[in-house]
Amino acid sequence: MGTGALAGYRIRDAGEADLTHLAAVERSAAGLFVEMDNGYRGEDETLPLAVLDLCRAAGTLWIAAAPDDAPVGFLAATEIDSSLFVLEMSVAREHQRKGLGRALLEKAIDHARWAHLPAVSLTTDREIPWNRPFYASLGFVTLDSDRASPGLLARREAEIAAGHDPARRCIMAKLL
To answer: Per-residue pLDDT tens for 107-139?
Structure first.
């Protein structure tokens, strides 16, 4: 997606200097989920700096940058069972609804294609009204447990152990 389509914003690879700004972006985005009362009580937890740095070093951490180049969104991903797994995608609340989440996810999908990975996967809350429809609009489908890989099932179980409601947590994937 070109810069013009994002009205001054751009999607770029993360730099080391970006890392310390991402927890604030993640907390800002999480505020919307808190208001939804989705049962998750880990809102103060953010992706650890070490994990973000590993993603940056692997080339799987992308930034949505404001016109002044400040990070206002990000997507961090890793590989799980031969799919590019979205660990976290967050856009600061004041920058939402501008196409940044879609542009970040499209960047991850393009990377997965470039890396010859057969799919992009993620976990999400199935009942938050905008989550599944957003991902479905980009070609993601919900996977039943019998269709999900062992690594994706383990990831979902770890998220449930961390406080997510098991009845609401789902795995989604887009085949490439």
So the answer is: 999 999 999 999 999 999 888 888 889 999 999
Q: Which of 80, 48, 56 lies closest to 162 in space, CA to CA? A: 48
Three-class secondary structure assignment of 100-116: HHHHHHHHHHHHHHHCC
Please give the C-alpha separations between residue 117 and each of 36, 85, 142, in angstroms, as whole numbers: 34, 10, 18
- pTM summary value: 0.91
Nearest to 67 by CA among 30, 109, 95: 95
Q: Which residues contact 26 (CB under 8 A, 6 or more apart)?
A: 46, 47, 74, 88, 90
Domains of the chain: 3-175 (3.40.630.30)
CA distance 100 to 151: 28
